[in-house]
Design goal:
Blueprint (H helix, E strand, L loop, with lengths): L2 H7 L8 E3 L6 E3 H6 L15 H8 L5 E2 L19 H12 L5 E8 L2 E8 L10 H17 L3 E7 L7 H21 L3 E10 H4 L2 H4 L2 E4 L5 E2 L3 H8 L10 H6 L5 E2 L2 H15 L13 E2 L10 H8 L7 H8 E2 L16 E8 L2 E8 L5 H6 L7 H17 L3 E7 L6 H5 L2 H13 L5 E10 H5 L6 E5 L3 E3 L3 H9 L5 H8 L3 H7 L4 E3 L10 H19 L4 H13 L13
Parallel strand pairs: 5-6, 6-7, 7-8, 7-9, 8-10, 14-15, 15-16, 16-17, 16-18, 17-19
Antiparallel strand pairs: 1-2, 3-4, 4-5, 11-19, 12-13, 13-14
């Protein structure tokens, strides 16, 4: 660490041992507040943190400062408001001990390498000027050259007005630097702190692969004061806060300050996970339909819908470490019927995505009974694109009655969202393994199942329509659902005979609901084996085989099978 930063790492000098919290007005013992990372122990209000202190909180101790450029003549406009811009710069440098509003370092978080650019609001409101834009761009270029993840911690009022149009150009400059990292497959993360507005919010802060935010952090293009003065609008409670944005799908996760280091460490470990282990014999997959008992299809439907069957989150808790749930479609919504995020599945890095139901009426209602809205499919698509960028295998767990059929979903483009996922999955360059763990309802299921390998549980079903829907349309009687189930041949044995699934995962003797741990072991063994097998294939071959797989369904050569 440089002397410049070490000076501010220590707690600031205070004239008293007590401070009043601006949020709850509680009297706070300063040393306790500092031990709590400047988070009020009474109301959890997160105070602003300087860049050096932030580095000390997040990074391992052996970080080093990158030599950052400072524009020699920043005041090209000769800008003066109540005082010259040059004097404002000089005062900011003297007051903060920094030479600009961002500090860039090379370091590690939980032992994982990272390049970090940390903004400091104390320096002219963290505004984005030429020097700040240059430093962030240089940090991105270093991440590109060294193939190291980039972490940007934002705190800014926006572009620096004293530098005029040159400040405005920094938005495009930093955005194209992040685009280069996208093209190179390098992870980018943003940690949004309070406040992050204007040109910073509308460039690198919201372009990163994963956006984390501190509780209460405000993020937006136009600040509340500008909105009120410009259009005289009335703003809703919590407007532009992290929680407000999480609900609307614009940030991935809101984490308290004490959890940030661990969360970022999990994300980095997924990227830097060790190589895939060698393939092991698989004992839990059945590929011969004759080896499966014949079952009443309607009974299979009933078993698949059992509320006690393990859910996506149940499997995650039993099989995964370092799972970080990502939220939002970045377009205005976050559907709770689909969840997902990077994880290590038995040590293998994957992007895990699936439908989520629940075990009670309240949970089912909260997750919309596992029926995704368009935002859910768009969220899944966003995670798949990230997996493709990072070359993470994709594993999907399917358990849905179907896509949500409501008017709101239609208004938001349900058909388009599903269609886009079908096209996206067909072209992914990374292995894709799909497992029908319960209900596989129509296009709502297929939107997560355009995969290299499609598996299903023995007591699951996969169908173009629900038995009840089929009965209502063709028999004109919903009571004919058992007949419809038999006619649709939606059970596991029939699906294997038809070549719709590649193998069936055996279930414990008492069923997955009664023995969820055994069921999870079977699922984990099957998915990991397929991921290991598929990762041996070149990306171009994977895509070609996947497209060939779906090309053959219903063709004149339907008997043809994709090479194993």
């Amino acid at each position: 660490m440089t002397a410049l930063l070490t000076a501010d790492t220590a707690p600031p000098r205070v004239s008293t041992q007590w401070r009043v919290c601006p949020g709850c007005r509680a009297m706070l013992y300063v040393r306790r507040l500092e031990r709590n990372l400047l988070v009020c122990p009474s109301c959890a209000r997160h105070e602003q943190v300087s860049a050096p202190r932030r580095l000390a909180q997040l990074l391992d101790q052996d970080w080093t400062t990158m030599s950052g450029a400072v524009v020699e003549e920043p005041d090209r406009l000769g800008f003066t408001d109540t005082q010259p811009y040059s004097r404002r710069l000089s005062e900011a440098r003297q007051r903060t001990g920094l030479d600009e509003a961002v500090v860039c370092v090379r370091g590690k978080i939980d032992g994982q390498p990272v390049i970090a650019a940390v903004m400091d609001f104390r320096f002219l409101g963290g505004t984005l000027g030429a020097s700040v834009g240059e430093r962030i761009t240089q940090a991105a270029e270093a991440a590109l050259a060294e193939r190291t993840p980039l972490l940007i911690i934002t705190a800014s009022g926006g572009a620096r007005v004293q530098e005029g149009a040159i400040a405005l150009m920094q938005m495009a400059k930093t955005a194209q630097a992040l685009a280069q990292l996208d093209e190179a497959g390098i992870l980018t993360m943003a940690l949004v702190t309070d406040p992050t507005f204007g040109g910073v919010a509308a460039s690198f802060a919201t372009l990163c692969d994963i956006i984390l935010a501190e509780p209460g952090a405000r993020l937006g293009f136009a600040g509340p004061r500008v909105i009120k003065q410009t259009i005289r609008g009335t703003l809703p409670p919590g407007f532009q806060t992290a929680e407000f944005l999480l609900e609307r799908g614009f940030v991935d996760t809101v984490q308290p300050r004490h959890a940030l280091r661990a969360t970022i460490g999990k994300l980095l470990r997924t990227v830097f996970a060790p190589g895939v282990p060698p393939a092991q014999p698989v004992q839990v997959l059945v590929t011969d339909p004759a080896a499966l008992p014949e079952r009443d299809p309607w009974e299979t439907v009933r078993r698949a819908r059992d509320i006690a069957r393990p859910t996506m989150l149940d499997y995650v808790s039993r099989l995964c470490v370092d799972f970080v749930e990502l939220h939002g479609d970045r377009l205005g919504g976050d559907c709770r019927a689909i969840i997902g995020g990077p994880a290590r599945l038995r040590g293998i890095p994957v992007m895990l995505i699936g439908h989520q139901k629940g075990h009670s009426a309240a949970e089912l209602a909260d997750r919309n009974f596992g029926m995704p809205a368009p935002a859910g499919y768009r969220k899944a698509g966003r995670m798949m694109r990230l997996a493709d960028k990072l070359m993470l295998p994709v594993a999907t767990l399917i358990d849905t009655p179907g896509a949500y059929p409501g008017a709101v979903a239609e208004e938001q483009g349900q058909a388009v969202a599903i269609a886009e996922n079908l096209r996206l999955m067909a072209g992914l360059r990374t292995p894709v393994v799909a497992v029908v763990t319960g209900e596989g309802g129509s296009g709502g299921a297929l939107a997560l199942a355009v995969a290299d390998t499609v598996l299903c549980h023995a007591d699951s079903f996969y169908s173009v329509i629900s038995p009840e829907g089929c009965a209502a349309i063709l028999w004109k009687d919903a009571a004919a659902a058992p007949k419809a189930a038999a006619a649709l041949r939606l059970d596991a044995r029939s699906l294997l005979e038809l070549g719709v699934v590649d193998a069936v995962i055996t279930e414990p003797p008492l069923g997955v609901a009664a023995e969820p741990t055994v069921a999870a072991d079977h699922l984990g063994e099957a998915v990991c084996a397929e991921v290991i097998r598929l990762r041996q294939l070149p990306a171009r071959q994977l895509t070609a085989r996947r497209r060939e797989r779906f090309r053959r369904y219903g063709s004149t050569d339907d008997a043809r099978r994709v090479d194993s």
